[in-house]
Design a protein that fits this description.
The complex is a heterodimer. By secondary structure, chain A is of the alpha/beta class. Chain A is built from nine helices and twelve strands. In chain A, 39% of the residues lie in helices and 20% in strands. The longest helix of chain A is centred in the C-terminal third of the chain and has 22 residues. Chain B folds into two domains: 108 residues, no CATH class; 130 residues, Outer Surface Protein A, domain 3, CATH 3.90.930. In chain B, helix 1 packs across helix 2 and helix 3 crosses helix 4. By secondary structure, chain B is mainly α. Classes of the chains: A alpha/beta, B mainly alpha.
Chain lengths: 288, 254
């Protein structure tokens, strides 16, 4: 990775922020909602002259901001999409977000995109592939990337590493930091039958730069209940409990409430962030 | 071919079709069979693309109903698989797709409604053009007017329909329940970005004709030749100026 340029003037505080979604742009333009920081989906602002990016620039003046990508397909074996990466680089240059993150997944092969966060096998081959791709992205963006663990509904028999070993290995070898999605850990633990606490305890605190929290739902397929990362409801009690454990292990780090479907009011999002903030405050007290 | 690529190619087909058998014994069971696990991805894909189209085409969804829209979204996705990690343009071909579905039926107006919805969605991605000050035109000598070329606003979308497509769109906004007479005749429409808002203007036939001539780069004099006898050029230019369709002009070469 080449030497990175400095992050923006407003670093992301170790507080609870919320995801910024289009229907809420107007509410945030004057900076009045009391959000500690915001995170926006990069792809929603790729139109260089569009209304959405103009709104983001205005909102950016009031809040620390992170950019979170959903479509770069880091783990794909296709060539990295130069056009997509170029748009991301231009957006990053223009917005100067404090953090830039992507998902540790793939979403396309043979030029066909599935526009989903698809799981990778936890193999040395996949680690090597990802490290090379992340290096390419970090060099293009001239900054450190955060990589997020995703919810998965399948695991592959070819995996030779545990998921947390895979995540840690990719981060350590690429120089990227980890965006630890605690809900995704819970969802995967339930779907794949491992101990979520074991995952939390195994991830080195020094690598974690951000935490995500979100709601999930239970869907039934052929009479089998599967937890699905739907981002359409409140964070569950079990995930809050896991989050507390993560804070004890990792310490207070910026935490984001993600909510994409069935989008509630800004006030409801802020109330959900307040719950996370209470737990962050305890973590700060413990550290003091 | 690497093992990772082989796996991704198998997954792509299996997830798209919801067919776990394509993955053989590659999936860990852990108490939930692969057939059920793969269905989650198949369902996610269907929902992602349906919701993407739903955001772009709410009036079409209202007109055809939820079940029909789901079916249309499924067939559209099969015929127009995504080629980008950015879904912004995923619905671009939906109007043309609806021509194939409905073009020869009593619902032949649906493609034009879809084109209007697409214009409304995408005009906000365009840069904001300056609006031509009518005084600049007024300051030109009459003999110079003939050769000028008027430039349309960058984000302007012009639509010409045999159906009252804007009336249909307006009648199907949330909370509206009005009926539209499909025999009322066609409409010419200009969709344009004004700051953070979308403006939609119904143009009369001559104003539309003039705007399309400008879009083709015709000088003003030549554009007027296409107008019917008796057309009031000043009134037509006024209409286009008021609607914000005109951004600038360049002088003639002579």
């Amino acid at each position: 990775m080449t030497a990175g340029k400095s992050n923006s003037a407003q670093p992301i505080p170790a507080r609870a922020g919320i995801g910024l979604r289009g229907p809420h742009h107007a509410a945030f333009l004057d900076g009045s909602p009391a959000a500690a920081w915001l995170e926006a989906h990069s792809e929603n602002y790729f139109a260089a002259d569009g209304v959405a990016l103009a709104a983001l620039e205005r909102i950016r003046a009031h809040y620390p901001l992170s950019l979170h990508g959903v479509g770069l397909s880091l783990g794909s074996t296709d060539e990295l999409d130069a056009e997509h990466l170029g748009k991301l680089a231009r957006l990053v240059d223009r917005i100067e977000p404090a953090l830039v993150s992507e998902h540790l997944c793939w979403g396309s092969v043979g030029g066909q995109h599935l526009n989903d966060l698809l799981p990778l096998p936890y193999t040395e081959e996949a680690v090597t592939h990802l490290v090379s791709r992340i290096d390419q992205v970090q060099n293009t963006l001239r900054r450190e990337l955060l990589i997020e663990n995703v919810s998965g509904y399948v695991e592959f028999t070819s995996s030779s590493l545990r998921e947390w070993e895979f995540l840690t290995s990719v981060a350590e070898r690429s120089g990227a930091k980890i965006l630890l999605d605690v809900n995704n850990i819970y969802v995967n633990a339930r779907n794949h039958g491992f101990e979520a606490n074991e995952y939390i305890d195994a991830v080195p605190a020094r690598l974690v730069a951000e935490i995500h929290l979100a709601g999930h739902s239970i869907q039934t397929y052929d009479e089998h209940d599967i937890l699905v990362d739907t981002h359409d409801t409140q964070v569950t009690d079990d995930v809050w409990e896991l989050y507390e454990r993560a804070l004890q292990k990792i310490g207070a780090v910026p935490t984001l409430i993600e909510w994409d479907s069935q989008l509630p009011s800004v006030d409801e999002l802020l109330a959900e962030a307040d719950k996370a903030q209470c737990k962050l405050d305890h973590a700060h007290e413990r550290a003091a | 071919m690497s093992e990772l690529r082989k796996l991704q190619m198998c997954c792509e087909e299996a997830f798209r079709l919801g067919d776990a058998s394509l993955l053989g014994n590659r999936i860990v069971d852990a108490g939930i069979p692969a057939t059920s696990r793969v269905k989650v991805y198949a369902n996610n894909l269907r929902e992602t693309y349906r919701k993407t189209l739903q955001r772009s085409y709410p009036v079409i969804e209202r007109l055809v109903g939820d079940d029909c829209f789901r079916s249309l979204a499924l067939v559209y996705t099969q015929q127009n698989p995504s080629r980008s990690g950015d879904l912004q343009n995923f619905g671009a071909a939906f109007g043309d797709f609806l021509v194939a579905e409905y073009g020869t039926t009593e619902y032949a107006y649906l493609p034009d409604v879809a084109r209007l919805e697409w214009a409304i969605e995408t005009v906000l991605l365009e840069p904001m053009s300056p609006r031509l000050d009518p005084a600049r035109l007024g300051a030109l000598a009459a003999e110079d007017l003939v050769d000028i070329r008027l430039h349309l606003s960058t984000g302007l979308r012009l639509l010409d329909s045999s159906y009252p497509v804007l009336s249909i769109w307006q009648a199907n906004q949330p909370g509206r329940e009005t009926q539209v007479d499909l025999a009322a005749g066609g409409e010419h429409i200009a969709v344009i970005r004004n700051a953070d808002e979308v403006e939609i203007h119904r143009l009369d036939g001559d104003a539309y004709l003039l705007a399309t001539a400008f879009a083709q780069g015709m000088p003003l004099g030549m554009a007027c030749d296409d107008l019917p006898d008796g057309a009031n050029l000043v009134a037509l230019l006024s209409t286009l100026l008021r609607a914000g369709c005109l951004a600038d002009f360049s002088p003639g070469s002579s």
